[in-house]
């Protein structure tokens, strides 16, 4: 599978406690996601989120999701994963993955909701939030971004 994602094009293993920011621009790829373009059968994604803007994606891309473009992993492989419905412009809560729709374990939240406290399932010994760091979004304690 060839995809385009804010963190990685394709996942064939585990992604845990990660996030992607920025934007993914229109391209020739038929699969696009805010975090991962395509997730293979043996993949898992946990405690991760994306605020990636999916700019001009959709008219060429057949499979576009707020977090994952195409998820071929078994149902239940993704847990405590989120995408920003405000920045991604993907507001339909069924579209955490382009395929399958209603992918379990992926939840759409607005920017304000992501800034209002750690999302459910995020380990507070790993993640933190501060209005002065990472625009108030969750960040990894061991690898904090610069203060805004």
Shape: globular
Structural class, please? Answer: mainly beta
Count of discrete domains: 1
Number of helices: 2
Strand content: 35-45%
Which spans have pLDDT < 50 for at least 5 consecutive residues? none
- Please provide the ordered H/E string of secondary-structure elements: EEEEEEEEEEEEHEEHEE
Can you count the beta strands? 16
Estimate percent helicity: under 10%
Give the N-terminus to C-terminus distance in angstroms: 37 Å
Describe the protein.
With 148 residues, the protein is mainly beta. The chain has one domain (4-112). Helix content is 6%, strand content 38%. It contains two helices and 16 strands. Strands 3, 4, 8, 12 and 14 form a five-stranded parallel sheet that branches. A four-stranded parallel sheet has the order 2-7-11-13, with no helix packed on it. Strands 1-6-10 form a three-stranded parallel sheet, with no helix packed on it. The model has no long low-confidence stretch (mean pLDDT 90).
How would you briefly describe this protein structure?
By secondary structure, the protein is mostly beta strands. 6% of the residues lie in helices and 38% in strands. The strands form 5 sheets. Strands 3, 4, 8, 12 and 14 form a 5-stranded parallel beta sheet that branches.
Topology of this structure?
Layout: E1 4-5, E2 8-11, E3 14-16, E4 19-20, E5 23-25, E6 31-33, E7 36-39, E8 44-50, E9 53-55, E10 63-65, E11 68-71, E12 78-84, H1 85-88, E13 97-99, E14 106-109, H2 111-115, E15 127-128, E16 139-140
Parallel strand pairs: 1-6, 2-7, 3-8, 4-8, 5-9, 6-10, 7-11, 8-12, 11-13, 12-14
Antiparallel strand pairs: 15-16
């Amino acid at each position: 599978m060839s995809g385009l994602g804010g963190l990685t094009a394709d996942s064939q293993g585990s992604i845990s406690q990660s996030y992607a920011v920025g934007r993914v621009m229109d391209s020739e790829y038929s699969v696009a996601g805010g975090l991962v373009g395509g997730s293979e059968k043996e993949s898992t994604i946990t405690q991760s989120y994306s605020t990636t803007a999916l700019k001009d994606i959709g008219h060429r891309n057949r499979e576009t999701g707020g977090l994952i473009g195409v998820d071929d992993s078994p149902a239940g492989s993704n847990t405590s994963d989120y995408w920003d419905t405000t920045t991604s412009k993907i507001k339909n809560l069924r579209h955490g993955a382009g395929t399958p729709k209603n992918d379990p374990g992926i939840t759409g939240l607005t920017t304000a909701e992501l800034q209002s406290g750690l999302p459910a399932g995020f380990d507070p010994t790993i993640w933190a939030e501060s209005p002065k760091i990472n625009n108030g979004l969750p960040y990894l304690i061991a690898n904090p971004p610069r203060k805004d």
